[in-house]
Amino acid sequence: MKRLLAVIVPLFLFTNAGYCEVFENLEIETPKIYEATLAQGSFIPALNLQEISTEICPLGYKVQFEGTDDLYVSDTKILPRGTIFTGYIEKIHEPVVGTNASMKIKVSKLILPDGWEKEIDGNIYTSNDNLIGGEMTEPATWVKIPHYQSKFQGISWNHRGPTIQVRPGGTRSMGKHTKIVSGERLIIIINSPIVIDHILSD
User: Fold this and answer.
1) pLDDT surpasses 80 at 77
2) Euclidean distance between CA atoms 67 and 72, whole angstroms
3) What tens digit of pLDDT does each residue of 92-121 get?
4) Are residues 53 and 146 in the same domain?
5) Which domain holds residue 127?
6) Three-class DSSP labels, the chain
C-alpha cells in the first residue's frame, strides 16, 4: 500500500504542475472595445417608419427612423445598417394663406441592433434650416396684361394682336398641410458630436 501511494503522489503532483503551466500561459480573448466620434454636421441616410403629418400629428409626436447604410469612422463601423433613430415633432406651423404648413423634427436617440442606446442631438435635414414644408402657395388669381409692340398694334387693320402676359394677382391660395409618408428616404443631420463607446457584438 505504501509503495502504491509513493507512486501515485508524485504522479499527481507532476500532473497538477502541468495544468498550472497551461493555465498560466492561457490567453483569454476579451471583447473588442472601440471609441469613435461622429462629427457635428454629419449626415445619416434614414427611412421614415410611419406617416408624419401636420394635420393629424400634434407637437411632441414621437417618430422613428431606420438607418439605411453602415456608417464608418475611418475603417471602424460605428453605426450598422438597421440602427433605429427616435425623436419627436419639435415645431409645427399651421397652413395659412400664402404658405403651406411646416414642421421641424428633432432626433434625440439612436438604438443599435443589439439594444445599446445613446442620446443624441439631431434633426431631419432640409436646406431650409431643417424646416419641412413651408412652401409659398400658388396665386389665387392670375391677371392678364396686354403688351403692345407699337402704337398701331391691336387696331382693326393691324391683324397682329397684343402680346398677353399673365401675372399673379395680389392674393395667394390657402396653404396645405405637410406630410412625410411611411417609407420616404430622409437625411438626419447631427448637431453636436456623438461619442460611440460600445462593446462590439456580432
Assistant:
1) yes
2) 13
3) 999 999 999 999 999 999 999 999 999 999
4) no
5) 30-137+174-199
6) CHHHHHHHHHHHHHHHHHHHHHHHCCCCCCCCEEEEEECCCCEEEEEECCCEECCCCCCCCEEEEEECCCEEECCEEEECCCCEEEEEEEEEECCEECECCEEEEEEEEEECCCCCEEEEEEEECCCCCCCEECCECCECCEEEEEECCCCCCCCCCCCCCCEEEEEECCCECECCCCEECCCCEEEEEECCCEEEEEECCC
**Residue with the larger pLDDT of the pair 12 and 25:** 25
CATH classification of the domain holding 110: 2.40.128.260
The rounded distance, in Å, linking the Cα atoms of 158 and 156 is 5
| pLDDT single digits (tens) 128-142 | 999 999 999 988 777
